[in-house]
Amino acid sequence: MLYHHRTGEWTQDSEGFWRDSDGYYVVAAGDKAQGSTFTGSKGECKVYDSGCAAGTTDYYTGWEFFCITDIWRMGVFTEL
User: Fold this and answer.
1) What does the pLDDT look like over 39-50, one tens digit per residue?
2) Fewer CB atoms < 10 Å away: N or C end of the chain?
């Protein structure tokens, strides 16, 4: 599970993804400015952290110990 000092301000959707009060998916992105918004694989995202490699988007979730292929097999993402 990714944790941020603002996690208490967000809510989890039915799939376990953290969403902010404006409905954006909460993400970390190494190559985007904090506070910027963009359309990601799940929908509209807002960058709250930069702790990942450039070209990577980390969605904040309530899950633990899942890798992207496990999530794909579960049908959460339709493409890798």
Assistant:
1) 988 999 999 988
2) C
Least confident of 4-8, 46-50, 62-66: 62-66
- Distance CA(13)–CA(51), nearest Å, equals 23
How many angstroms separate the CA atoms of 23 and 2, rounded? 18
Residue 27, SS3 per DSSP: strand
Residue 18 sits at the vertex; the CA angle it makes with 52 and 67, to the nearest 5 degrees, is 50
Q: Which pTM was predicted?
A: 0.72
| 69: Cβ contacts below 8 Å, ≥ 6 apart | 80
